[in-house]
Amino acid sequence: MNMLYDAMKLYKCTEADVKIIMDLQQEIIDGLLDKQVLRKNTEKMFLQCTQFPNITVIMKDKQGVVALAIFVDANGTEEDLSGNLVLYKPKKAGNIKLVMVREKYRGNRLQKILMLFLERYAVEKGYTCLCTTVSDKNKYSLNNIVQLSYEYDHSAIKYGGLQRKIFVKNVETEKAERRKKVLTYMEEMLQTKNIQNIIKDEAQQNSNFLEIDYEIAGSGDIVEYYHEKEEMSKYGILLDGYVWFKDDRSYLFERRIGEWKLKRVICILENL
User: Fold this and answer.
1) Taking a C-beta distance cutoff of 8 angstroms, is the pair 242, 203 a contact?
2) Is 67 within 8 Å of 101 (Cβ atoms)?
3) Interatomic CA distance for residues 85 and 131, integer angstroms
């Protein structure tokens, strides 16, 4: 199923979403020929995954849930994947715990997009290393992980007897490069281009953006504010918690700036 990402939105999950997460997990497991490919998580585990510093994000379209991804800080618990790493001794490690995509939406880079989004979240929160596990039998996920520059570290028996490969990625080395890319994009957009027209062009062509929740916005995202009395919008770019507009003014990123109310946040996928 080919899709336009602008028809979707990415939300931050809360404990109220745990039933939705459980239902999606069961749907995915029911569709697997080999049930060992995916570990079955408990309701208690998913509840913990919605609590800071952990984060669970869910992608939806008009028909409902599309996909889900989870980042956890498992430091000091049995879920910690960084303790036995061979390649790195990270300062601060986190886990890409789980990515699930409903069957009819597969083949649209959603796993990669969600993993890159969680990488951005981790980098902005100061994590230097990300770990993840994958079954040898899950060829699609294995290929995506390798393509996203995760390195094979070792194999282990995890999750009550399941054979898993542990992969790791040093995201600290990418932090400066990510920031440089965002700064270049911001300068280009604010000085030489009409942001509104760029968004319209993307929507008509390949839709290289995704609307996301206010709570999970990050550097490089475009924000649209709307003035109700004037009936007009203005656009800015997020950087380090501030919104920069074309007049070179910056404001703390909030739902309302004076008489301007936040209308939407747009994640530019190439900036992830």
Assistant:
1) no
2) yes
3) 9
Q: Domain end: 119, 139, 170, which one? A: 170
Say how far apart CA 118 and CA 6 lie, in whole Å. Answer: 19
CATH number at residue 148: 3.40.630.30
Q: Whole-prediction pTM value? A: 0.93
CB-CB neighbours of 195 under 10 Å: 20
The 8-class DSSP code of residue 36 comes to G
Q: How many whole angstroms separate alpha carbon 33 and alpha carbon 103?
A: 13
Residues 126 and 19 in one domain: yes
How many domains does the chain contain in total? 2
Structural domain of 227 = 175-271
Structure tokens at 81: 């994947």
CA atoms in the 13 A half-sphere facing the CB of 203: 11
Mean pLDDT, range 59-85, rounded to an integer: 95
pLDDT tens string 240-262 = 999 999 877 899 999 999 999 99
Q: Which residues pair with 212 in a beta bridge?
A: 10, 265
- The values of phi and psi at residue 263, to 5°, are -100, -45
Question: 170, 199, 234: which is the final residue of a domain?
Answer: 170
Residues 162 and 216 in one domain: no
Peptide bond into 90 cis (omega under 30): no
Task: Name the band, by pLDDT with cuts 50, 70 and 90, for residue 1.
Answer: very low
The mean predicted confidence, pLDDT, of the chain is: 91
Q: Are 216 and 10 in contact (CB under 8 A)?
A: yes
Name the residue with higher pLDDT: 271 or 96: 96
